[in-house]
What we know:
By secondary structure, the protein is α/β, with parallel strands linked by helices. The chain folds into two domains: 11-28 and 102-233, Rossmann fold; 32-97. The protein is 43% helix and 12% strand. It has nine helices and eight strands. A six-stranded parallel β-sheet has the order 5-4-1-6-7-8, with helices on both faces. Strands 2-3 form a two-stranded antiparallel sheet.
Amino acid sequence: MGYPYGSGIGLGRYKGIVFDLDATLVHSDVDFVKMKKKMIRVLEEHGAPVGVLTPKMTTVVILEHAEKYWAEQGKPEKDRQWLRDEMTRLMDQVELEAVETLTAINGVKDAIYKLRMKGYKLAILTRSHHNYAVKALEKTGMIGDFELILGRGETPQPKPYAEAMIHAAKLMKLSLEEVFLVGDHHIDATCALNAKCHFIGVATGLPPERAWEINKPELILPSVADLPDYLAANDR
């Protein structure tokens, strides 16, 4: 089944663009395997079954499993909240370690500036921590181009849930028909699909067979650097 929100028809009606961050706008060496191993170790020490959670899972799936285990075990809410806070601390720690070596993807900074000058409202929607996103944009000189930065825990549900994109559009004071999402991963594509909004993929992340395991978009640009020209050609 084709992805129904990727044809790019009538892109001139869009007023806002929501971007993923890592591998979409910046190259980052966040060690997600290290992060997830730390999370799993703590969760197993506090009641998660050993060997069930794996670093191949996304952090969202790991945390969803953890919540299920805590509910089954009748773990007190104060203990659950401590564990949630500890998971956040571990994720923040590993992400912030990567800021020092982070770089903008070639051509992206100029493209983002062009899009803002064209009048688009620009936002970041990431599953990383807000502070990490801010530091990444500061380091790459793009912080002034975005009017909204939404990080982990700042939407009712994270990507790939529709609520993440719905919340972003609401804060941008735009309808879902007036915004589209740009990302490098099927989590981003699935978020757009769930929210029933337009999506444009970029090929600056994982190899295609891993990046688009599900919900492969019809439109995949080489990079965000190519987005201004693509939009200009489809401004109708």
